[in-house]
Fold:
Amino acid sequence: SAASDVYKRQVYVNGEMVGTAPPRVTLDAPAGDSVVEIRNDSATAYSRTVNVRAGRTVRVSHDFTQKNDAE
Structure:
């Protein structure tokens, strides 16, 4: 169901589970490249490499209800 798609997304950074969303997951990460993966049991995982700069915030989100043929 659509309601269950909204909950229980597991968030991983560099292969380590760091929390579930919602609520929003906020964490401190060292500067440099990190791989962020968001998993949802009912859809293909979303993965993105982000470059974290010292003192900056990087936001990563994904809408599992949208189909994207390019991924």
Remarks:
- The chain has a mean pLDDT of 82.
- Residues 4 and 42 are 9 Å apart (CA to CA).
- The beta strands are 9-13, 16-21, 32-40, 43-52.
